[in-house]
Amino acid sequence: MARIKPQALLQQSKKKKAPRNISVPTIALYSVVTVVMVFFLFATYRHWSQRSIVQPEEGTSNFQVDDDFSDSKKSDVPRYAIFNTSKGLITVELYKEGSPEVVDEFIDACQKGHFKGMQFQRVVKHFVIQGGNSENQAVIEDWTSREKHYNQLEKRLKHEAFMLGTSNTKHEKEAFDIFITTAPIPDLNAKLNVFGRVIKGEDIVQEIEEVDTDEHYRPKSRIGIIEVTLKQSI
Questions:
Q1: Are 112 and 158 in contact (CB under 8 A)?
Q2: Which residues have CB under 8 Å from 159's CB, separation 6+?
Q3: DSSP character for 59?
Q4: Sign of CA pseudo-dihedral 61, 63, 69, 72
Q5: Dihedrals φ, ψ of 159, to 5°?
Q6: CA gap 40, 42 in Å, rounded
Q7: Phi-psi category of residue 59: left, alpha or beta, with phi > 0 → left and psi -120 to 50 → alpha
């Protein structure tokens, strides 16, 4: 029997001890599995940690929804009215908080097209301009009869000019009239329900105020409202 040389025995021993090579596809598969497991664990941890932080107390979410609904209803109410007149645009801020019923009635009249084509029937310089379809002249006649007396009054607390109002009398169908003051008028609340204020277009109001009128303060030329547009913001 032939003897094996020591060098050959050393080579055979190295071959037996050498580890087997791992293929590239196997390494890639293990890497993908590891990444997926790490991502899944991280996503699970993040989900439960955020849920424990933002979980509202019982009843809190319902209150928030109701509050948001209430705010949305308030924001739906128009806050401004833009009068497109034959002389130009007049923008009015509506006093919903101060005169809620009158504002609601005015908005309803606007939506029904009540003011479309309405004429300014009376124009009294340094007092008011009146628009409406009603022939009730009680308010305007009382003011004009006291014009000189008002001019002689000492300066005291008065309503400002460019206020929007309507008569205190109960409005019958198709009888919602409007008044825009052109000067401070004392005791205005005794005559009108004020429900707004002109915030833009004062020059248009003054231009209407300057038109020629007859002895009954009726404009000699037709001046009217083309339409009224309601807006929540301007």
A1: no
A2: 181, 184, 185, 186, 188, 189, 194
A3: T
A4: negative
A5: -75, 145
A6: 5
A7: left
Residues 165, 120: Cα–Cα separation, whole Å = 14
pLDDT digit of tens for each residue in the chain (234 aa)? 555 555 655 565 555 554 556 677 777 777 877 877 877 787 777 777 666 554 444 444 443 434 554 455 556 789 999 999 999 999 999 998 888 999 999 999 999 999 999 999 999 998 899 998 655 555 555 545 544 444 443 343 346 899 999 987 766 656 789 999 999 887 776 778 889 999 999 999 999 999 999 998 999 999 999 999 999 998
Q: Which residue, 84, 176, 82, is CA-closest to 132? A: 176
**pTM score of the predicted model:** 0.62
The token pair that represents 24 in the structure block: 């590239």
Q: How many helices (H) and strands (E) does the chain have?
A: 7, 8
Q: Do 78 and 234 touch, CB atoms closer than 8 A?
A: no
The shares of helix, strand and coil residues in the chain, as percent rounded to the nearest 5, are 40, 20, 35
